[in-house]
């Protein structure tokens, strides 16, 4: 490769038409992205499943709305706590860094170990089951779908999400 080719590629890298330009992202989050991230993290998929169980066990729409609003307030306060921690401790690593800086290495390791082995898989399973319930419901109108079908669809969604990162949709 001669100097002219090197300068051409360097120019392409630095100019606005470069295909490599979108590899370098800025470390900024706008207000819409921040609110969406915090709401999605704190509220999650449970907001779509839990109201029907709360309403069926309480029986009163007004009381279930009050409980639902209180839980939303608690989730919002949790999101604000995460936002405050993120501004105080501006390092990557989320909960691990927060626990490491406040409690110590042993507790932070125990948290990460339990997060990887228990909490993250249980969260993924809950999201997959709630997706499966909504995906199967149109095929069983008027009755509840069999649990085996719901669990098979949930397992299929988990396995498909395992292989989804290996596929790309925007090839050059």
Q: Would you kindly provide a written description of the structure presented here, covering whatever features stand out?
A:
With 172 residues, the protein is mostly helical. It has two domains: 30-88, no CATH class; 94-164, no CATH class. Helices cover 71% and strands 0% of the residues. It contains seven helices and no strands. It has helices spanning 3-14, 31-42, 46-58, 61-88, 95-102, 105-136, 147-163. Helix 3 runs antiparallel to helix 4 and helix 6 crosses helix 7 (147-163). The longest helix has 32 residues, at 105-136. The protein is extended. Keywords: Membrane, Transmembrane, Transmembrane helix. It is a multi-pass membrane protein. This is Zmp:0000001267.
Give me some keywords for this one.
172 residues; mainly alpha; 7 helices; 0% strand
Total domain count: 2
Distance between the termini: 23 Å
Sum up the overall morphology in one term: extended
Radius of gyration: 23 Å
Q: List the total number of helices.
A: 7
Provide the β-strand percentage band.
under 5%
User: Largest sheet, if any?
Assistant: none
Q: Which percent bin holds the helix content? A: over 70%
Mean pLDDT: 77
Order of helices and strands: HHHHHHH
GO molecular function: L-amino acid transmembrane transporter activity
Membrane topology: Multi-pass membrane protein
Transmembrane segments: 29-53, 65-85, 148-166
Keywords: Membrane, Transmembrane, Transmembrane helix
């Amino acid at each position: 490769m001669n100097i002219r080719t090197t300068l051409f590629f360097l120019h392409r890298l630095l100019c606005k038409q470069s295909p490599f330009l979108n590899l370098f992202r800025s470390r900024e989050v706008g207000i819409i992205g921040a609110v969406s991230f915090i709401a999605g993290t704190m509220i999650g998929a449970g907001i779509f499943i839990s109201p029907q169980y709360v309403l069926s066990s309480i029986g009163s729409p007004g009381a279930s709305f009050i409980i639902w609003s209180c839980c939303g307030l608690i989730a919002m306060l949790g999101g604000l706590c995460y936002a405050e921690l993120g501004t105080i401790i501006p390092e990557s690593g989320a909960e691990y860094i927060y626990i490491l800086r406040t409690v110590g290495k042993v507790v932070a390791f125990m948290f990460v170990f339990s997060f990887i082995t228990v909490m993250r898989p249980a969260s993924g399973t809950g999201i997959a089951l709630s997706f499966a319930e909504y995906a199967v419901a149109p095929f069983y109108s008027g009755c509840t779908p069999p649990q085996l079908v719901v669990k098979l669809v949930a397992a299929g969604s988990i396995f498909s999400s395992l292989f989804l990162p290996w596929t790309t949709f925007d090839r050059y």
